[in-house]
Amino acid sequence: MRGARSAKWVGGAIAIALAATACGGGDSGSDDKNRAIDKNGTFVYASGEPQNPLQPANTKEAYGSDVIHTLFTGLVDYTPGTGKLVNMNAESVTPSKDNKTWTVKLKPGWKFHNGEAVTAESYVKAWNWAAYTPNNQTNSSWFADIEGYTDVHPEKGKPKTDKMSGLKVKGANEFTITLTSGIPYYAYKLGYEVFSPLPSGFFKDPKGYGEKPVGNGPYKFASWDHKKSIKVTRYDGYQGPNKAKNGGVTFKNYASSEGAYKDLVSNNVDSMNQVPEGELANYQEDLGDRAINQDYSMIQTIAFARYTKQWKNIDVKVLQGLSMAIDRDTIIKTVLNNTREAATGWVAKDVIGYKAGACGEYCKFDAKKAKDLIKAGGGVPDNKVSIQYNADQPHKGWVTAVCNSIKQSTGVNCVGDPKTDFQADTQTRDAKKVKSMYRSGWVLDYPFNGNFLRDLYGTGVGGNQSGYSNKDFDKLTAKADKAQTTEQSAELYNEAEASLQNSFPSIPLWYGKLQTGASTNVTGVKFDQQAAPIFTEVQVYKK
Amino acid sequence: MGRYVARRLLQMIPVFIGTTLLIFLMVNVLPGDPVRALWGDKPPDPAQMEAIRHQRGLDLPLWQQYLHYMKNLAVGDLGTNIGGRPVGDILSQAFPVTVRLALLAFGIEMILGIALGMLAGVRRGRVVDNLILVFTLLVISVPVFVLGYIVQTVFGLQLKWTEPTVQDATDITQLILPALVLGSLSLAYVARLTRTSIAENLRADYIRTAVAKGLPKSRIMTRHLLRNSLIPVVTFLGTDIGTLMGGAVVTEGIFNVPGVGNTLYDALARREGQVIVGTVTILVLVYLAASLIVDLLYAVLDPRIRYA
Questions:
Q1: Residue at B166 is within a domain
Q2: What is the model's pLDDT at position A31?
Q3: Is residue A47 part of a domain?
Q4: Nearest residue on chain B to A137, judged by CA atoms?
C-alpha cells in the first residue's frame, strides 16, 4: 500500500516535470487503460499489392505472405522470441527413430471457412499440387526433402507424375511424410505457410481461389480491391489457440513507406512494417510510447565472391583481418541511429541453437590486429576491395562507413560498388559477376540455426551464391543432420558455426532490428521473428 | 479540315508502333528479371523459373515476343503481369484515378494560371505584377517532390486541415491538394506565358482600334485581348495534359494515390514489361490526342490559321 502510494507521488512528480518541460506524450499514454476495447474493431495495417495470387505456396514477399498468414493455419507454428514449436492444426508430429518418416495427426473438428472439414487429404493434396512444376508455385522447392519430389519437380524436363511417393494418407486425420533422408528438425520447416492445407474447390479453380482464398485460419477473406486494400474478418468458427482479439484486418496499400509513416503519425493507419530511413532519427519523438524497436531474426553480412581471382586462393587470415578492421559499434551508433546490434556470429538471434560469440575475436574491432592478420596472410590482392550493394535501399551510408573503417585501420583501399536497384544487384550475384565482396543478408525461414548455416554456406545449396565451399563445414553439417533430436542437432550445428571462424565465408556485421510503431487506436501490436505483425493479438479501442 | 484530321490520325499509327517497340526494347535492356524477382533475396528455383518463363512466353526471342504482343493488342488483349493479372484490369483501375487528378490539376492551372497571367499582364510593372513574378519564380524553382512534402507536412500533419495522404481517390475534395502540387509548376508557366502575351498584345494596333471605337472594356479584354493572347498558352496547356498524366509518378507517390504513376513505378520496380509497355502506350496516345486537339483549337482562336 505504502509502496503504491509513493509510486503515485513519483509518477505525479514525473508528470509535472514532463509538463513543465513541455515534452509530455500528449494524448496517448496514461488514459489508455481506461479505454474500452472494441472486440469487432478493425486493425488497419500498411501494406502493398501482393505480386502473386494469394496461394500459400506462391507468396514470397511480405505483402502476400502477411495476408496468407491470417487466412491459413498450418500444422505447427513457433513462439515469437524463443522459436519454440507449438502445435496448431496438428495434434502431434512424430518422427520415426531415424527422423525419416514423420507421422502427422490432426486435431479433429477443424473446418475451412466454407465449412469443409480439414483432413489429411487437404494437406497431402495441397502439397502435391504445390510441388508439381506446371502449377508454377514459387515456393515448391520447400517440398524437396520429401521422397518423390524429383518426380513431380525434376531439374529438367517434364515431371513423371503429380504425386510425391513420400506422402501417404492413413486416415481422415492422419498422414505420413517420408523424407529422402532423416532430418531431426524437420517439424520446424512445417511452420512455413507453404505447408498450409487447401480446400477441395481450390484444385478446380486455383486462379479464382487465388483471388478469393478460402483458408482455415483465424481470419476469413472478405475482399481484395486491387492496389487499394485487402480485407479479412475474424472467423468465429476457428479452433486454434490463436483466436483473433479483433474483428478483422485491413491491409491498406501504400506506394511508399513515407506515405504510410505520415498516416501512422496521423492515425489513418494503425501500424506499418518499417519506419522509412529518413524518419529513423525522429520516429521515437514523433510516436512517443507508441514507437516500437524490436529484435527480429535477421543478419547482415558481407560475403566474399569466392569465384573471383581475388578470393579464390586467399589465406583465411586476410578475411579475418578484414572483419576485424570494421568498427561495428561505432558505425551502428553514428550511421545507423542505433537501429542494429553488432553480430558476434553467423546465426541471427532468437532461433534454436543461437549462441553468441561464434565468430570469436574476429568480429571484434582491433585495427592493429587486423593489419597484422592481413599482412600475415599475404595481403589483399591489388590492395583493393569493393562492396556491392543495391542503391534503391538505404545501404550506401553504412557501406561507406564500413569502407572507411577498413581503409583507416588497414590501409586497404575500399569502395562501394552500387547497383541501381535490387534487381540489378541480384542479377549480378546470380550470374557470379560480383567484382569483390557484396552485401548479403538472411531473414529466417524457420527458427533453427541450421537455416542460417547449411542453407547458406553448404556446398552447392541454393542460398550459397558466393561459391564458398568447405569440406570440414559440410562434414559437420551432415553430422548435425544425422543427429537424433533437434537439440542435439542444434548443438552440432553450433560446432559447424564455430568452424566457420577458420574458413570465413562472410563477415558478420549486425543483427536486424525493427523500427515501427502503432497508432493510438490500437494496443498490443507486436511483431514476430520474421518482422511480420502478430495480427491476432492486436486489440482495437472503441472509437 | 477533314483531310487534315485524317492525316494526323494516320500519322499516329507509326508513332504508336515506334513507341511500343522502343519501350519494349528499353524494358528488356534494364538489368533484372521479373521472374527471378519472384524469389526476392532468397535462392530461386531454376526449374520453376524456366517453367514460368515458358508459360509467359518470356523465353522466346525478343522480336517474337513483340510480334506476339502486337498480335494480342490488335484484339484488345494487353497481356498479363507476372502474377497473372490482366494488364487491362490494372490499367482500367489506375487510369480513371489519374485522369481525375490530372483534369483537376489541369483545371487549377488553367483557371488560376490564366487569371494570374492576365492580372500581371494588364498591370505590368506594378506591385501585383512583381508579386506574381516572384510567386511563379518560387514555384518554378522548387522541385515537385519538395513542394509535395512541404504541403503534406504543413496541411496534413501540422495544421491537420486534410489527411496527409489520399484516403479515398474517388473523393474529389481529397484530390485537391495533390492536384495543386501536380499542377503548380505548369501553373507558373501558364501565368508567365499569359502575362508576356497579354503585355505584348496590349500595345497591338487592334487593341488601340478597339479602344478608339469605344468598345466596353470587358469586351476588349475577353474577345480581343485574351483570345489573341491565348495561342501560345493553349499550345502549352495541350501538351501539358500528357505531362500531367505521366508526371503524376512523384505526386501520386507522395500522396499515395493509386493511379498511373503508382502503377508505372511499381511495374518498373518489378520489371513487369507488359504493364510498363501498356501504360506508356496509353500515355503516348493521350499525348497524341492532346496535341491534335491543340492544333485544331488554333483555328478556332485565330481564323487566319487554316488547314488545307
A1: yes
A2: 54
A3: no
A4: B48
Q: Is residue A255 part of a domain?
A: no
User: Which residues of chain B from 76 to 95 reach within 8 Å of chain A, CB to CB?
Assistant: 82-85, 89-90, 93-94
Cβ neighbours of residue B299 closer than 8 Å, sequence gap 6 or more: B1, B305, B306, B307
Whether the CB of A421 is below 8 Å from some CB of chain B: the reply is: yes
When CB atoms are compared, the residue of B45, B153, B265 closest to A140 is B45
Check CB contact under 8 Å for B47 and A156.
Answer: yes
CATH number for A383: 3.10.105.10
C-alpha to C-alpha distance for A72 and A56, rounded to whole angstroms: 8
Domain total of chain A:
1
The β-bridge partners of A168 are: A176
Cell numbers 498422414 correspond to what residue?
A175
DSSP A504: -
Its domain, for residue A483, covers: 295-513
pLDDT of residue B304: 77
* Residue B32 in domain: no
B30 found inside a domain:
no
- B258, A228: Cβ pair inside 8 Å? yes
Between A259, A421, A430, which is nearest B256 by CB? Answer: A259
Residue A32, pLDDT score: 61
| Chain B residues lying within 8 Å of A131, measured CB to CB | none
* CB atoms A462 and B43 under 8 Å: yes
Q: Which residues contact B42 (CB under 8 A, 6 or more apart)?
A: A60, A445, A462, A463
> Any CB–CB contact under 8 A between B2 and chain A?
no
pTM recorded for the entire structure: 0.88
Q: Is B1 contained in some domain?
A: no
Give me the CATH number covering residue B271: 1.10.3720.10
Report the percentage of chain A scoring pLDDT > 90: 85
Q: What are phi and psi of A352, to 5 degrees?
A: -60, 130
When the pLDDT of each residue in chain B is averaged and rounded to a whole number, the result is 87
pLDDT band, very low/low/confident/very high, at B308 (cuts 50, 70, 90): low
Q: What tens digit of pLDDT does each residue of A323-334 get?
A: 999 999 999 999
Mutation target among A421, A423, A451 for the B interface, most CBs of B within 10 A: A423
What is the structure's pLDDT at B239? 81
Q: Is residue A248 part of a domain?
A: no
Question: What is the tens place of the pLDDT at every residue in A474-505?
Answer: 999 999 999 999 999 999 999 999 999 999 99
Q: How far apart are CA A361 and CA A368, in angstroms?
A: 13
Interatomic CA distance for residues A228 and B169, integer angstroms: 10
Q: Is the pLDDT of residue B231 over 90?
A: no
Q: Would residue A339 count as lying in a domain?
A: yes
Query: Comparing A15 with B244, which gets the higher pLDDT?
Result: B244
Residues spanned by the domain of B171: 88-301
User: Which grid coordinates belong to B26?
Assistant: 528499353
* Residue ranges, chain A, pLDDT below 70: 1-33
Of A376, A381, A368, A440, the closest CA to residue A412 belongs to A381
Q: How many domains does chain B have?
A: 1
